[in-house]
Each structure stands twice: as C-alpha cells, then as structure tokens.
Write a structure and sequence with these properties.
This protein has 444 residues and is of the alpha+beta class. 34% of the residues lie in helices and 19% in strands. Residues 309-313 have low confidence and may be disordered.
C-alpha cells in the first residue's frame, strides 16, 4: 500500500534527517524534556524496568530469581514515573529508550525525563525509537567497545526533535498504533506457527527414536522418564559404552601465539544453537593445540552445551568440520555401533531432560560424567540409519515451513520499521487515514 506525501517540504538543516514537512518545526532536546532527579532513597518504587529494542520500556524478567536485587541494592536507582521518557545513552544504537507505561525503577545508567505538555507521548515514543533517529544517534556515539558506545549529555541536549502540530502528533500516533497492531498480530500468527512446527518436529523425533518406525513392534518399559516405552528389541546402553565423552578448554587469551593467525577451528558454547556446525567464529594455532590439552575432534562428533544453552534450536549440534572445543562444551564421539546422526536425534528428543541439568535444576549441572551415564534407546545400526533417513526427510519439510514463516516475520518487521520512520518524520502524510475517534483515543 502506498501513502500520500505532504504538499510542501523544506530542508531540515540536519543531514541525517533530510527534508521535513514545511509546517513542521524542530526544537532541541533540552527544550522538550526535563530530567527527573528522583532516585530511590528508602522505599522501592514499582518493578525493575528494562528496555527492549523492539517493544521499548518493559518490566524486567529474571531467568534466575537469585539475580533479583535486594531493596538495599536498589538504593540510588532512578525512579521512573508513568509517561516519562527513559533513556539509556549507552544503548541508543539499539533503540535503548522509550516512553514508559509503567511506574518503576531503572539502573543509575539510565535517565528519566518529563515530557513537555505540547508533545504527545505516543508520538514521541515512536519518533525517538524510529530507525532514522537510531541512525542519527549513532553519529554521536563515542567509546571503545561496540556494546558500550555512549552519547554525551551535551550532544543529547542539542539533539533535534521534530514537532508537528499537536493534532498531527495525535493523528500520527493513532495511525501507528493501528497499523503496528495489525502487523504485530500477523507476526504473532507466524510465531505461533513456528512454535507449532517446533512442537511437531520434537514429537516426530521423540516418537521415532523411542518407538521406531514399525507401529506393530512389541514394546517394553524403559524405566526412564523422558524415554517411556521403547521397542522391545532395542538395547539401553549408557553413552560411555558406545561413545567417548570429553570436553575442551580455552587457551590463554593473553598468549597471542595461541590465537594470532590461527587456522584450527575452536568452538564456544554458542555454536550449539544450530543443527550442524560448518564453520567456526574463532580459530587457534597449532601451538595452542599442542600445549593446551586440546584435541582436534573428527567430523561426525556431537557437541553438547553444558551450561546456558537450549534457548533457540536446542543444545546439541553435529560437527561437519574438524574442530576443537572449549570447557563449556562436551564432545561425544560415537563408536562403530552408533550413528552420529541418530545420536544427534536422540539428544534432540531428550532436550528438556538435558536442559534441566544444564540449568542446574538437578543436583549437579550438566557435565561429561552425567552425559556418559545417560542411557540411549539403541536399535541395530541398520535401523538407526533408516530412522535417521526418515527423520531427515520429515524434519526437512518442517524446517522449510519454519524458514518460510521466519522470512515472513522478517519482512513484516522491516515493514513495521519503515512505516514508523516514514510517518514520524513526515515522509508520508497520514492525516487523512485516521478517524476522528482514533485521534481522540491517541490523545487520551
């Protein structure tokens, strides 16, 4: 869908902003926002808040409740009132700001601002988080590390703020509320589809590696919770009897001879969030291989994340290259009785069981000893190969549908980003596209 443009434009005088509608004005940040001095002194105000690059200011969620700060730890944290602008100047290149819908508190690294009465809060939220503005922030960021670049206070105070009339601010906010809600609903549909495909994939794998492909095969109780009933003629050996289990190490970062111009793949725990490892992001030298208790693992080795894994595709991957690993990965090298691909499918079926160990939910976190003692539902080798080939075909279809849904999400997100930027910077004129009722609701 194409949108109309304004009749007349003028040069904004700001290179990265380009043209703006002739009847719009520009003010400096310092004239639009007033910093709030409120900090926690005795009583904690609201929940801990954080900033999302996609959603803006939200209540912080903790994966581990032990990481939640005590009331004493929160002394000096900045208080955020509902309707204030919250800014993390060290995260502006990732849209680290937004207007808060919550009352709460944030790290002292953040700042909170009252918004001038002539500015619509929803419009400001969209404007300051738009892609054009994020690109504008990056021109003023300074620092050494890419993840901690910061805008100075003087540059922030002088930053240009586009100001349409109050009525047009309300109209733009109402238009974007409506259109982004539609896009977000479509994205949510695709995300639900991906979750359903993921569940179906998991169910297909789990059934095949425990029940086999013959629905009439006699079954027996494995006595293992995640496995349940298995084909009667299968064995249930521990991994240690059909494979070698080991882990690696990290060569000293202080010794450049271990890293400089290295050509031997070295893998860290992030590499398991894919089904097959075909390349490494880091490499070590042959000197590191000799001196640092590392071994070059053969193709077909299955690597397993021991800590902090499993949030995306899973916690295991198959090596399609020779590589070394760090101490947070385990390597399982199957013998001739165990197909590497079949083992990989088993570990995918045991995903939740292993992930609980990886999170330390049991008596001990996942380690090589626990992996070596894990029992496998093991058919004869020819049956392993047949099951793997069948699963390859079935999961390929599901993976193709998942990839298609993910592409749809990417396109929708790009459209959302482009639409917001175009509307809040006046590149399109949305005044005739919003009902009077919607404008009133946006002003509320």
């Amino acid at each position: 869908m194409s949108f109309p443009r304004h009749e007349k434009y003028k040069d904004s005088g700001v290179e990265w902003l380009g043209e703006l509608p002739e009847h719009w004005s520009i003010e400096k940040f310092r004239y639009c926002f007033r910093e709030s001095p409120e900090k926690i002194e005795n009583e904690v105000v609201g929940e801990m808040l954080s900033v999302s690059g996609y959603r803006g200011i939200e209540i912080k969620e903790y994966d581990d409740e032990n990481r939640r700060r005590t009331d004493e730890d929160l002394i000096g944290y900045r208080i955020v009132r509902k309707g204030q602008l919250v800014v993390n100047t060290m995260w502006l290149n990732y849209a680290g700001l937004g207007v808060s819908s919550f009352e709460g508190h944030v790290s002292p690294a953040y700042r909170s601002y009252w918004i001038a009465d002539n500015l619509n809060k929803r419009f400001i939220h969209y404007l300051l988080r738009s892609s054009l503005y994020v690109n504008g922030y990056t021109k003023y960021l300074t620092g050494i590390r890419p993840n901690s670049l910061q805008m100075s206070r003087d540059d922030l105070m002088a930053f240009p703020i586009l100001i349409p009339s109050q009525h047009e601010q309300y109209t733009i906010a109402a238009f974007l509320d409506r259109e982004t809600a539609k896009i977000d609903a479509l994205i949510a549909e695709q995300q639900r589809l991906i979750e359903l495909l993921k569940e179906k994939r998991q169910a297909i794998i789990s059934h095949a590696v425990t029940k086999g492909l013959n629905p009439d095969a006699p079954m027996k109780d494995s006595g293992i919770a995640w496995m349940g009933w298995v084909a009667e003629h299968w064995s249930l050996p521990k991994i240690r009897y059909v494979a070698r289990v080991e882990n690696g190490t990290t060569p000293s970062r202080n010794n450049l001879d271990y890293w400089m111009d290295g050509d031997i793949p070295w893998l860290s725990s992030g590499e398991v969030n894919q089904y097959a490892v075909t390349e490494a992001s880091e490499h070590i030298t042959s000197l590191a291989l000799r001196e640092c208790s590392l071994r070059l693992l053969p193709r077909g080795t299955i690597i397993v994340g021991l800590i902090g894994q499993g949030k995306t595709r899973g916690l295991s991957a198959q090596l399609e290259i020779e590589a070394t690993i760090n101490q947070n990965l385990a390597a399982i090298i199957p013998d001739q009785s165990l197909s590497p691909k079949y083992l990989h499918y088993i570990l995918q079926a045991a995903y939740e069981y292993l992930r609980e160990y990886g999170r330390g939910g049991q008596q001990a976190a996942l380690n090589c000893e626990i992996l070596a003692d894990m029992r496998l539902p093991l058919p004869p080798l020819d049956e392993q190969l047949l099951i793997s080939a069948t699963l390859d075909e079935q999961t390929a279809n599901l993976d193709a549908l998942t990839a298609e849904a993910q592409r749809a999400i990417t396109l929708l997100q790009e459209r959302r980003t482009a639409l917001i930027s175009a509307a809040v910077t006046g590149k399109i004129d949305v005044r005739g596209l919003v009902t009077a009722q919607s404008t009133v609701e946006a002003a509320a």
